Amino acid sequence: MADASQATDNTTQVPPLPAVAETTPEAVKAAEKAAVGVHKKINLAAAPIRQYLEATVVPVLMQGMQALCKERPDNPVEFLAYYLLSHNPQPNTKPLPAGAEAGAPAAKAD
């Protein structure tokens, strides 16, 4: 039976993560462009949830959150919703699902 010191010698060392660069508008735009490029290369219908969100929603959501923090509006949810709709990098190619239209009342629970 091997002792604990031998077990740790056989493991590979994981390199440290690189330092996170300061988030600038240029960096955010570059990340968004990279995400759109990835979006075009992968089949999003078959992608895992995290990969799907990182390729489609996260870039514009992060920009919206930054704008939200700068503005600090009285109604932050409405501000963010408007920001996301007005800065959507992909034009609407499909109609929204029934009940998902802007201003549509929420479905009642029985």
Automatic annotation (TrEMBL):
<dbReference type="GO" id="GO:0006325">
    <property type="term" value="P:chromatin organization"/>
</dbReference>
<dbReference type="InterPro" id="IPR007858">
    <property type="entry name" value="Dpy-30_motif"/>
</dbReference>
<dbReference type="InterPro" id="IPR037856">
    <property type="entry name" value="Sdc1/DPY30"/>
</dbReference>
<keyword id="KW-0156">Chromatin regulator</keyword>
<feature type="region of interest" description="Disordered">
    <location>
        <begin position="89"/>
        <end position="110"/>
    </location>
</feature>
<dbReference type="GO" id="GO:0048188">
    <property type="term" value="C:Set1C/COMPASS complex"/>
</dbReference>
<keyword id="KW-0539">Nucleus</keyword>
<feature type="region of interest" description="Disordered">
    <location>
        <begin position="1"/>
        <end position="20"/>
    </location>
</feature>
<dbReference type="InterPro" id="IPR049629">
    <property type="entry name" value="DPY30_SDC1_DD"/>
</dbReference>
<dbReference type="Pfam" id="PF05186">
    <property type="entry name" value="Dpy-30"/>
</dbReference>
<keyword id="KW-0804">Transcription</keyword>
<keyword id="KW-0805">Transcription regulation</keyword>
<feature type="compositionally biased region" description="Low complexity">
    <location>
        <begin position="97"/>
        <end position="110"/>
    </location>
</feature>
<protein>
    <recommendedName>
        <fullName>Protein dpy-30 homolog</fullName>
    </recommendedName>
</protein>
<feature type="compositionally biased region" description="Polar residues">
    <location>
        <begin position="1"/>
        <end position="14"/>
    </location>
</feature>
<comment type="similarity">
    <text>Belongs to the dpy-30 family.</text>
</comment>
